[in-house]
């Protein structure tokens, strides 16, 4: 540390004028103040302190990324099992026009009160399924493979079944399983349904 003795007159060369001595004193005082400032603020230049701060920042735990969970497989398996049961039941309708007509009447009544939103773009195809069942039961249209007809009947049986996987009485959720079954049936019978709707336009 600099002593105050540095400011004594005898410590300055005699040849330095008064103005120069005053300037030298000012510079010396400024130097002392700068050294004190450096001593007090030494922490801001300490490399170890900077490393500690970086380590503290890097040590912060990042929020875990949310993992998207796939739909419960048990629900899908149960839906497949329910539809398989409907397919077995549907085979008994193929050769029985009266049962087919009764199924159409019941499904048409059910469809009149069903919301369309859960079905989306498959709703027109669902309506075509019902008309195809009616036409087949009346004998006016039979140009459909039996395996495809069974799929269409099975989907219709599932829709009218009051004991389906998700009860229709549940708001917003009750028709989701019905819509899923209809979508499955449409994928398996789209060409047959398109052919039937083309036939409808030519017979009107």
How would you summarize this macromolecular structure in one to three sentences?
By secondary structure, the chain is an all-alpha fold. It has helices at 18-40, 47-58, 73-90, 97-112, 123-138, 146-160, 176-203.
Verbal overview:
The chain is mainly alpha-helical and 204 residues long. The protein folds into two domains: 4-58, no CATH class; 73-203, no CATH class. Helix content is 63%, strand content 0%. The protein has seven helices and no strands. Helix 3 packs across helix 6 (146-160). The chain is globular, with a radius of gyration of 44 Å. The chain starts with 17 loop residues before the first helix and ends with a helix. 22% of the residues are buried.
Write the layout of secondary structure elements.
Layout lengths: L17 H23 L6 H12 L14 H18 L6 H16 L10 H16 L7 H15 L15 H28 L1
Keywords:
204 residues; mainly alpha
